[in-house]
Design a protein that fits this description.
The protein has one helix at about 35-50, and strands at about 5-10, 15-20, 60-70, 75-85, 90-100, 105-120. With about 120 residues, the chain is mainly beta. The chain has a 6-stranded antiparallel beta sheet, with helices on one face. The protein starts with 6 loop residues before the first strand and ends with a strand. Helices cover about 15% and strands about 50% of the residues.
């Protein structure tokens, strides 16, 4: 996330927001933020959202995720939101949303997805 320039902006139980500023390093040939960067912040937001509900000795790994790119990822920055839908003993399911945010605060949903994560114990 540091390499992309993304940062956590909101953390609460079962919900995390990550912001990615638009910069040339994360854009594709048409000037939109690349689908890889869009997907990466969505995946991380869901993973951190799941982690907020785990005990301190647990880690999280993505088992699978599906993301639909709904519109070109444009704006001054993207905001990814990961929301836990169901936290289980082993598997957790999250909803993923990414919005493009304009200078005037206008928001457009640019990606939507779902993710399954597995709880893993920290190796000591």
């Amino acid at each position: 996330m540091a390499h992309l320039g993304a940062r956590l902006t909101h953390i609460s139980p079962g919900r995390v927001h990550i912001v990615l500023p638009a910069r040339p390093e994360v854009t594709q040939q048409h000037g939109y933020i690349h689908a890889g960067a869009t997907s990466a912040i969505a995946d991380s937001a869901g993973g951190y959202a799941a982690l907020t509900l785990f005990d301190e000795d647990s880690e999280v790994l993505t088992v699978e995720y599906k993301i639909n790119l709904l519109a070109p990822a444009a704006g001054t920055h993207l905001e990814a939101t990961g929301t836990v839908l169901k936290s289980g003993r082993t598997l957790t399911v999250c909803q993923l949303e990414v919005h493009g945010i304009q200078n005037d605060g206008a928001r457009q949903l640019v990606a939507h997805g779902q993710q399954t994560l597995i709880r893993a114990q920290i190796r000591q």
